[in-house]
Amino acid sequence: MTNTITAGPLTAEAFAPFGDVLDCAGAPDKMINAGLCERYHDRARLDFEKGRAGLNLFNAQPRSLPYALDLMERHPLGSQAFIPMSEHPFLICVAGDVGGVPGAPLAFLSEPGQAINFHRNTWHGVLTPLHGPGLFAVVDRIGDGDNLQEHHFEQPYIITG
Question: Domain range holding 93?
Fold first, then answer.
């Protein structure tokens, strides 16, 4: 039996249990740079245990839908923000924790101008751009300790758009 999940739109409300949607929704918090720049303040809850924030660049191979989700991971020591460096959508898969393993996944499709921040210890799929280039700036925890746990599903979930 195949488990199929239809990816829905990425909204702040639907994604809230897993992290933050980073976008310019709503009014800016203030105008800066002589009134030429809108500032949307403090959009992500960055959370690092015994470490510091680092800015990394990830260049992932594009994937396509339907997508077979067979691996999820989480980072118990820090949040992780993914900021696309193009206007292309990407696929985000997340799941709640059920006894130390991911529960039934949910899938979201980003819109141009959206980025995400996974809360610490959130099960999520690997970086899944749907178009090239798959270049992302990633704000991640830098520090000692094992900050990666992986779970392989016996049967993949098929994600459709």
Answer: 3-160
